[in-house]
């Protein structure tokens, strides 16, 4: 519990996480508000169109949580005070993942709530299990994405490099893989963020072609993120802070 408290204090001791939290909530909710204000009607899926904006900012926040320590050298003091590096990194990752979970849930339900206010005539009731997954599932996707970002941060150690990898992979690389001749589309189906999106929107047009169901897609996404984190943990143990 002491490590968790320490990591929480370190995370919120700078302005960057606060700005990231603000943007991670303001961007998806603001985007949804702009759509709802001019739209003639909205569906439940439409209320979550902006979640990826919040996800990108959350990836940056999680990467900063670890790379900033390497940048300013505070990670050395942390490892000297607590030689058990695994415990330190688990505590840091847990704090960031819980924060990402909260951001995801507030952003998802906030976008849904503002849509119900601006579009009272649209049927936006959450009644089925699939609809609950589409809204409430944003939080777990954010949490596992934060684990991935911390893992990449442990491997790269530099903020610019970690953020570049995370954003380019999620926004560009997974889309471009589909252009690879013959096998591109099959490979794309197994990309982590494609799977995460399938978990949230499973049952739509892509569901027939996806190799896993929505919950299997979440499990796959979680396995990839934890796998990257574990690789980062091994590398952190093997090299100097």
Unreliable runs:
none
Mean pLDDT equals 89
- Count of DSSP H/I helices: 11
| Percent range of helical residues | over 70%
Radius of gyration from the alpha-carbon trace, in angstroms: 19 Å
Helix/sheet category: mainly alpha
Strand content: under 5%
Number of strands: 0
- Head-to-tail CA distance between termini: 24 Å
The shape, in one word, is globular
Count of domains: 1
Order of helices and strands: HHHHHHHHHHH
Query: Biggest sheet, in brief?
Result: none
Protein name: ABC transporter permease
Transmembrane segments: 18-37, 49-68, 89-115, 135-156, 163-181, 215-235
Keywords: Membrane, Transmembrane, Transmembrane helix
Organism: Saccharopolyspora aridisoli
What topology emerges from the helices and strands here?
Layout (H helix, E strand, L loop, with lengths): L1 H10 L3 H24 L12 H22 L1 H8 L3 H34 L10 H8 L1 H19 L2 H18 L7 H5 L3 H10 L12 H25 L3
Keywords: Membrane, Transmembrane, Transmembrane helix
Protein name: ABC transporter permease
Task: Provide structural commentary.
With 241 residues, the protein is mainly α. The protein has one domain (2-238). The chain contains eleven helices and no strands. It has helices at 2-11, 15-38, 51-72, 74-81, 85-118, 129-136, 138-156, 159-176, 184-188, 192-201, 214-238. The longest helix is centred in the middle third of the chain and has 34 residues, at 85-118. The two termini are 24 Å apart. The model has no long low-confidence stretch (mean pLDDT 89).
